[in-house]
Amino acid sequence: MWASIRSFPLIVALPAAYAFSRYSFLGDKHVFFWLLTNRMTPPAVFLLPFFQLYTSVGLMDTHIAVALVHLLFNVPLAVWILEGFTSGIPREIDETAYIDGYSFPRFFVQIFLPLIKAGVGVAAFFCFMFSWVELLLARTLTSVNAKPIAATMTRTVSASGMDWATLAAAGVLTIVPGAIVIWFVRNYIAKGFAMGRV
Q1: Total tally of structural domains belonging to the chain
Q2: What is the CATH number for 10?
Q3: Could you tell me the residue range of the domain that residue 137 belongs to?
Q4: How far is CA 72 from the centre of its chain?
Q5: What is the pLDDT of residue 145?
Q6: β-pair partners for 157
Q7: Three-class SS state of 160
Q8: Strand (E) or helix (H) holding 158
Q9: Could you say which of 65, 112, 118, 187 would form a disulfide bridge with 192 (CB–CB 3.0 to 4.6 Å)?
């Protein structure tokens, strides 16, 4: 479930990055800058509004609450990264595909996505890492049912001292998903750093 939730920012960011790169519309530069400033805003600024909203709607201590918060912070980052990769692809490729009879969804999946897979890998890496290590909102918006592993690791001290077994298990559970993500995107990280916005 968490893997699909963590891929939502990329699903939303890919069409948005394409639109920012390929089309001009009223206020596009301002909206793009606003997206970037959303990522620069510290999570503590959103803490009280989210807490009040989730309490009144009944989303406290749910997985949906944590997923929505991660979407808020990761979509702007993914749009910003992917827009740089999208702008690096010549528009003539789009036009040639349309002349050859490709519909937009077919062009996007069969031609465009393979061209920016390095950018998708880099964006996936950063979205995962920013979500995985985020602690402030996770501790505030969850109590028992939806508590992430990072928030659990901070509560390993018991009355008898440090709970080393729980800390060791939580440490392994924290490292393994990050290692898996790095293994999947390892071929694209270096290329992404060399040619993208990162």
Answers
A1: 1
A2: 1.10.3720.10
A3: 2-195
A4: 9
A5: 75
A6: 162
A7: coil
A8: strand 157-158
A9: 118
- pTM (two decimals): 0.78
With beta carbons less than 8 A apart as the criterion, state whether 63 and 1 touch.
Answer: yes
- Token representation of residue 113: 């996505």
Q: CB of 57 within 8 A of CB of 49? A: no
Please say whether the beta carbons of 81 and 127 come within 8 A: no
Q: What is the pLDDT of residues 1-19, one digit of tens each?
A: 444 555 788 888 999 999 9
The pair of three-digit structure tokens given for residue 119, joined into one six-digit string? 């950018």
Q: Tokens 């912070």 sit at which residue?
A: 73
Decide: 84 and 126 in contact? Cβ < 8 Å.
no
Six token digits for residue 68: 């929505």
Spatial neighbors of 71 by CB under 8 A, at least 6 apart, are 8, 9, 12
Q: Are 153 and 171 in contact (CB under 8 A)?
A: yes
| pLDDT the model gives residue 100 | 92
